[in-house]
User: Fold this.
Amino acid sequence: MTEHIKIEAKSGVCTITLDRPEKKNALSHDMYGAMADAIINAELDASIKVIILTGSDNCFTSGNDLVDFLGAPPDLTADQRPPVGRFMYALLEAKKPVIAAVEGPAVGIGVTLLLHCDFVYAGKEAYFMTPFINLALPPEYASTLLLPRAIGDKKANEMLLLGQKISASEAAAIGLISDVTGTGSALKRAKEVASILAAKAPSAVRMTKQLLKDSPESAEDRMNRENALFAPRLQSEEFKESVTAFFEKRDPDYSNCS
Ligand code: COA
Assistant:
């Protein structure tokens, strides 16, 4: 339990609010733990159809609590997941739709977690920054996969290799977020979308979400699959005819190939 996370269940929607404005909603171990529990409970509660994640009026989150990072860094490889891991896996595995409402800065894991949400609405003063590189840290929780997929390699490089800040309007234009709202209206918009979703067939929503989230194979898996096809092709009649035709300076003739 922590006073820095507020949880409200109303009209089929569980709203999880970060409430540590004096530290710009920096995420402590206790806050991650409370958010993980809230998501897991919302998943188990049949009356809840949608989860909303939001922050304060002028700040979504400044990311991981840097004091915790220095004093009590999480062991991300431990068998027993630390609170941040419990939270990120709960979000990853959530079958119900998750909507984020962002005002002000979303920094570090505050952006990473948005990549795992199904909808993101942000007030027009919001901005997004993944400055891991400036802390000499690599990115985390699949952001190197999901961010380029969302916004393209070149923009992802600017965010992850340069730590560049993205405005709400640019974030919407490049596909990092669903839409920009007026300042202070992101949560209202998230609630409107939640009530639309809550009225839809729940299992169809879950099924559709699952299909949308199913990951295409990794680059490594794709390379392995390509290699499995490519190597035998080097022994094929079609390949031999193609190369022979090249050296003989003629068009290939595949008429004897089946
Ligand atoms: N962890 C711990 N404390 C944090 C924090 C964090 N991630 N981010 C901000 N704080 C604290 C500040 O130390 C300050 O505390 P103080 O009042 O005791 O001095 C307070 O929150 C307010 O922060 P401040 O920097 O003054 O607010 P701002 O509005 O000028 O800037 C941010 C907001 C989010 C842009 C800025 O705080 C920031 O860059 N924070 C660090 C972000 C970061 O590197 N996160 C980790 C990414 S992996």
Observations:
- The chain has two domains: 5-198, 202-247.
- The chain has a mean pLDDT of 93.
- The beta strands are 5-10, 13-18, 50-54, 98-102, 105-107, 119-123, 127-129, 166-167, 179-181.
